[in-house]
TrEMBL record, chain B:
InterPro entries linked to this entry: MetI-like (IPR000515), MetI-like_sf (IPR035906)
SUPFAM superfamilies: MetI-like
Membrane topology of this protein: Multi-pass membrane protein
UniProt KW keywords: Cell membrane, Membrane, Transmembrane, Transmembrane helix, Transport
Subcellular location: Cell membrane
Family of the protein in this entry: Belongs to the binding-protein-dependent transport system permease family. CysTW subfamily.
Protein's name according to its UniProt entry: ABC transporter permease
Natural source organism: Actinoplanes flavus
Domain annotation ABC transmembrane type-1: ranges: 75-272
Top-level taxon of origin: Bacteria
One Pfam family per UniProt: BPD_transp_1
CDD domains registered for this protein in UniProt: TM_PBP2
Length: 271, 281
């Protein structure tokens, strides 16, 4: 539509303000991690890198980071398998309740995290507890995988809708077995969708705190839980600042990867 | 291997069963099962002396929930916060998404999307923490604007900050699919910008906004972490649930409170599904 010049300028201003609103808090954390003053007075008077070396030496933070990565990898692996299976079932078959499935997959992420958290917690206590399996890394992975399935499912489903079944039929006509068709035709077609979905799943898991609070056993601390536990301790503030700054810097990596994998739309929907 | 493959090829129902069994076992039996147990336990009570769960049907929890003013207020406040966050996100996101999709030069759109996308990957806690620093006494916001400090307005502000990209992205995606030629046709037929917006842009906008609102509304409704970080003494539904699991050790009552956001979200999702917004996710 033909917008007047003032309207264009107004929109441009809103955009600029919006981006400022989004980025100023993140920049502040970055600068604060170099703030030399122990009380983090603002604006900072002198800059130092000693908090960075202190954070690097912090055993708890490093341990928590490793735990988060392990949990993320486990949850992503399960989400990749389950999400792909559901996407194939929904896209390639017609069956009773098909429309309900997309709602079901979305449910763990659409419901408030605390609900998913206590539901899984009480189920784990009453079922797995009786089997003698306590809460720990395994229960974290189970909890995370439950809400990560949707990212893989959505990405693979969109890809399957686009590609259709012609190539697979051609492969079968040419005498390939079901396994060969999957290995040489289907899998390469959905590979980048799997990568994009897996990346989102990992990011969701890596960042999750609410469900984790309820599914983590004693002694298992993921990075978000570590940050939250140390957030209100003034003497830990310098290390928390650095960990926060590192996480902001690292957030560029998945965006860059997603761009390389599948173009700008790859990471557009987080679910 | 080959014979199994051809057997499966001739029996599509079997293939379907193979594909669906594991995921459904997980999502229906484990997850929906857990939700069902939660729902049932909301009708149980806790023995005041022993602290043990009494597995007997009772409406006591819900009666307390409805009768006591504290709980009503917290529930209403939570819905109010979720609604306010959603409205703020819509008001900020729509002009931004419109600029990105229709006004910005085509070459820069890609970069604007990346600029909106990148903070999504930065940790939730880190962003809440950033606002804790910003809003602190004598912090940057206090020095510049003299407030608002920690409390309910801060909670709404920070939640809106956290979920803003979840609103911008679906709205942008929806607007991008709206062909420019439609806007031109509307202008050619004599419509001014306002009329075009109402009659052409708005109908495409509604499903996208609803899709985004699922995130902004639901994520705000269940949040109890941000409230603890910047909310001061503010309590939302999530805090009540958390307190009843932890300190009070009253899981049935926590389950009863948790039913409130679930009920609200299920109604919301069903209403939104009718509008076709779930396809926009």
């Amino acid at each position: 539509m033909t917008l007047s010049a003032p309207a264009r300028w107004a929109l441009r201003a809103v955009m600029a303000l919006g981006l400022t609103f989004i980025y100023v808090p993140l920049l502040l954390v970055l600068i604060n991690s170099f703030n030399g003053d122990r009380t983090f007075a603002w604006p900072p008077h002198d800059l130092t890198t000693r908090w960075w070396s202190a954070a690097w030496a912090n055993e708890g933070a490093r341990e928590a980071l490793l735990t988060s990565i392990r949990a993320g990898l486990g949850a992503t692996a399960i989400a990749l398998v389950l999400g792909t299976m559901i996407a194939f079932a929904v896209q390639r078959f017609a069956f009773f309740g098909r429309d309900t499935i997309s709602l079901l997959v979305l449910l763990p992420i659409a419901l408030p995290g605390i609900v998913t958290g206590i539901a899984l917690d009480s189920a784990w206590r009453s079922v797995m507890g009786d089997l003698g399996i306590g809460k720990g890394m395994f229960s974290i992975i189970v909890g995370h995988a439950t809400f990560c399935v949707v990212t893989v499912y959505n990405n693979v489903l969109a890809r399957l809708r686009r590609t259709g079944t012609n190539l697979e039929e051609a492969s079968a006509d040419l005498g390939a077995s079901g396994f060969q068709t999957f290995r040489y035709v289907t899998f390469p077609l959905i590979r980048s969708a799997l990568l994009a979905g897996g990346l989102l799943a990992f990011a969701l898991s890596f960042d999750e705190i609410i469900v984790t609070t309820f599914t983590a056993g004693p002694g298992v601390t993921t990075l978000p839980i570590w940050i939250f536990n140390n957030l209100f301790r003034p003497n830990q503030a310098p290390v928390v600042n650095v960990v926060a700054a590192v996480l902001i810097v690292l957030s560029v990596i998945p965006v860059w990867l997603a761009q390389r994998i599948a173009g700008p739309q790859a990471g557009a929907g987080r679910t | 291997m080959a014979s199994l493959g051809s057997y499966l090829h001739r029996h599509p129902r079997l293939r379907l069963a193979g594909l669906l069994s594991a995921p459904l076992l997980w999502l229906v039996v484990a997850y929906l099962g857990a939700l069902a147990v939660l729902l049932v336990s909301a009708f149980w009570t806790v023995n005041g002396f022993t602290g043990e769960v009494v597995r007997q049907f009772s409406l006591g929890n819900f009666r307390t929930l409805l009768a006591e003013e504290v709980y009503r207020n917290v529930a209403l406040r939570s819905v109010g916060v979720a609604a306010a966050v959603t409205v703020i996100c819509v008001v900020v996101a729509v002009p931004m998404a419109f600029f990105m999709a229709k006004v910005a030069p085509a070459g820069s759109r890609h970069w604007l999307v990346i600029a909106i996308l990148t903070p999504l990957w930065a940790s939730y806690l880190v962003k809440a923490y950033a606002w804790r620093i910003l809003l602190a006494n004598d912090g940057p916001m206090d020095t510049l604007f003299g407030g608002p400090g920690y409390g309910l307005p801060a909670t709404v502000l920070v939640l809106a900050y956290l979920w803003l990209p979840y609103m911008i992205l679906p709205v942008y995606a929806g607007l991008e699919r709206l062909p420019d030629s439609l806007l031109e046709a509307s202008a050619d037929l004599g419509a001014r910008a306002g009329r075009t917006f109402r009659s052409v842009v708005l109908p495409t906008l509604v499903p996208s906004v609803l899709a985004g609102s699922i995130f902004t509304f639901s994520l705000s409704l269940g949040d109890y972490i941000t409230v603890q970080i910047v909310g001061g003494k503010t309590q939302l539904i999530g805090n009540l649930v958390y307190a009843n699991i932890g300190a009070a050790n009253n899981l049935p009552f926590a389950a009863a409170i948790a039913c409130v956001p679930v009920l609200i979200m299920v109604i919301y999702l069903l209403a939104v599904r009718r509008s076709g917004a779930l396809e926009e996710l």
